[in-house]
Amino acid sequence: MAAWQQWSVRLVLFLMLASLGADARAQGSRRGRRNVSGGKARVYIGTYTDGKSKGIYRSELDLETGEMSPVELAAELKNPSFLAIAPGNEYLYSVSEIEEYEGQPGGGVAAFKIDPDGGLTKLNEQPTDGGAPCHVAIDQTGRTLFCANYSGGSLTVAPIKRDGTIAVPLPVIKHEGSSVNPQRQSGPHAHSVTIDESNRIVVVADLGLDKLMIYLYSPKFGAVGPHELQPEVDLAPGAGPRHFAFHPSGNHAYVINELDSTITALAYDGKAGTFRKLDTVSTLPEGGHEGNSTADIHVHPTGKWVYGSNRGHDSIAMFSVEKGTGKLTPMGHEKTGGKTPRNFAIDPTGRFLLAENQDSDTIRIFKIDLETGKLTATGQDLEVPSPVCVQMFRLDATAGKLRLPGR
Fold it and tell me: Residue 260 belongs to what domain range?
């Protein structure tokens, strides 16, 4: 890289870092918001299509009773294993977790318009230039899409046009290295990408490296680069970080580790965009469970509880969050009534949790006790072929379209 190019990159990264302080201060006005109960949520379900599934399915969740409507096919797509709904709830984006896209190595990512009746109209599709894309996220302006490529061990960044279509992606950011598990960590495996509330820090959990890779992002320039203050966070050898979640306070974060069935709590400095490890807890009961692997993690909207999914033990692990420190205390486990609960979701009001049983073709609906955080099955199991991702938004949230900067 020429000297002037190095200087330009450093200037952009400096401007990005300088903006963190102002954005971190602005977060205070957005924290602690509470959603009232009632109404309905539109639910979209990603699947694997190597069996009976044909693509992305849709349903509606009653936010008062927890009842879900029977699923309908919303759009056909090969292996739409992870979905993201853009701000404003007008567009949905999905990975196509494949190893070859139009004759070239890598996977794909597709854009859909969300129709008034909940159907999906495909807008376009782009290659991710990395194999097996397994996670997608949209920044808070709706202008940029991020994909984690599992077998590619890389991060894809693509601009989003005003009409919701995906532009040609930028050159992929490739991870390098390995870790201690020869079967699962012989190379990098980017497994998720998460953006902080300031819309400036991008965290990629890399299962193959036992690291969180930290990037600075500029919404204005669309630029992404390593965070020079802390380009990575090392986790325990063989942990296998998979999914990541920020606490609504903006002061803490959590990563669920697939290979050793643990969750690591971190302190987060939103002004500097840096992390400090606090402690690590098991997602399993005493004695463990042979062959278990974890999958997904979510923080309750109130910030009081953290939940993680166990595949093998087939349960949701529940934890209380210690106020101030962010450390976790185990609260027990709730069986999901099926096999291999991969991803799950908490509805916008914080009253219901939807757990997807990938290998038994069901979604179990739980009611969340807002005093204790405990889960109780509502009695309904929704039938869906190979469910592996669930995303939703409140239908009343579309009243008066959200105006996004520059759109």
Answer: 39-398
Mean pLDDT score of the chain = 91
> Residue 405 domain-assigned?
no
Report whether pLDDT(375) > 90. yes
Domain membership flag for residue 7 = no
Which pLDDT belongs to residue 173? 98
Please report the pLDDT score of residue 6 as a whole number.
43
| Cβ–Cβ < 8 Å for 314, 340 | yes
Average pLDDT for 110-136: 97
Please name the residue that has the structure tokens 């991969």.
342
In angstroms, what CA-CA distances link 314 with 53, 136, 319, 382? 22, 25, 16, 17
* pLDDT over threshold 60, residue 345: yes
- Buried b vs exposed e over 314-352: b needs ≥16 C-beta within 10 Å? bbbbbbbbeeeebbbebbebbebbbebbbbbbbbbbbbb
Residue 27 lies in a domain: no
CATH code of 161's domain:
2.130.10.10
Percentage of residues in the chain having pLDDT higher than 70: 88
CB of 161 closer than 8 Å to CB of 167 = yes
195's CB contacts (< 8 A; 6+ apart) are 137, 139, 140, 146, 201, 202, 203, 217
In 20-66, where do the E strands start and end?
40-47, 55-62
Q: In whole angstroms, what is the distance from residue 165 CA to residue 286 CA?
A: 49
Q: Both ends of the chain: CA-CA distance in Å?
A: 34
pLDDT tens column, 283-309: 999 999 999 999 999 999 999 999 999
pLDDT at 28: 42
The SS3 of residue 5 is helix
Q: What are phi and psi of 10, to 5 degrees?
A: -65, -35
User: Distance between CA 40 and CA 375 in Å, rounded?
Assistant: 20
CA 219, CA 204: separation in Å to the nearest integer? 17
Is residue 210, in this structure, part of any structural domain at all?
yes
